[in-house]
Design goal:
By secondary structure, the chain is an alpha+beta fold. The chain contains 7 helices and 14 strands. The longest helix is centred in the middle third of the chain and has 27 residues. It is rod-shaped, with a radius of gyration of 34 Å. The C terminus is likely disordered.
Length: 249
């Protein structure tokens, strides 16, 4: 029931016994008591969708404002962000659906969520490089690592399932472990780059960054530079040819 009804009923009953224009008297009394709704008075802004975007629901006696209000602009920007996320979902699915780790992709409002099932650490290194994920953008649980990045101007969350377990296993068997940009490297093993060249650990620089040399060459490069230029790196667990080892001296 309308909570104003008892007060309106009492006011009408009070004025029914009056003289003159009783109806007008009752109407003015109700208005003066604040029991009538004024259609020209604004109590808040309600938005509606139009072909041109968001616009306020205004009384017929009031023209719509020529420029969008801040609230209208926020609503329009939100719609545009969600639309960009939905479009990116289609692009990601078309680009990566055939990758063995790819599980799926979906839009979560203005954000895109990519799900991966990681079976090899080297594959995760490749995903981080491809999607532009760096170590400080990683958070992890017992069963999944979440990497946050952006593609275009769309925020993206990448869920790498089973990765924590693989990292623990790899760390346990690594003889010379070193973590760089979220990837654990066993520097006791030769490292193969994206061009199929082999790098060997040759100590550390003053900052503690590992130095590696290519085959038997004397030049040494930092692990960070190698990953950036010719990564990702993959450990070589099979024995390297004797001739190649001899070149290293």
């Amino acid at each position: 029931m309308n909570k104003n009804l008892p007060a309106a009923t009492a006011l009408i009953r009070e004025h029914l016994a009056g003289d003159g224009d009783v109806a007008s008297s009752i109407g003015h009394a109700l208005d003066g008591a604040g029991l009538l709704v004024d259609p020209e008075r604004t109590f808040g802004t309600v938005l509606r969708r139009t072909p041109q975007g968001w616009a306020p629901v205004a009384p017929a006696t009031q023209p719509a404002p020529p420029e969008p209000t801040e609230l209208e602009q926020q609503a329009t920007d939100w719609d545009a962000a969600c639309k960009r996320a939905a479009q990116l979902v289609d692009v990601v699915r078309a680009t990566y659906a055939t990758e063995p780790d790819f599980v799926g992709v979906r839009a979560d409002r203005d954000t895109v969520v990519i799900s991966l099932q990681i079976a090899e650490l080297s594959r995760w290194a490749g995903w981080m490089s491809t999607l532009g994920i760096v170590e400080h953008q990683l958070t992890g649980l017992d069963y999944v690592v979440c990497g946050r990045t952006t593609i275009g101007d769309v925020p993206v969350s990448v869920l790498a399932y089973d990765l924590p377990e693989l990292q623990l296993v790899d760390q346990a068997r690594a003889r010379r472990p070193y973590r760089h940009s979220g990837i654990l490297y066993d520097l006791a093993l030769p490292q193969e780059d994206a061009q199929r060249d082999i790098w060997y650990f040759q100590g550390e620089n003053a900052e503690g960054m590992p130095l590696l040399s290519l085959d038997g060459r004397s030049e040494r490069c930092t692990l960070a530079a190698i990953v950036d230029l010719v990564g990702p790196l993959h450990p070589v667990r099979e024995p390297v040819a004797a001739a190649q080892g001899g070149e290293r001296g």
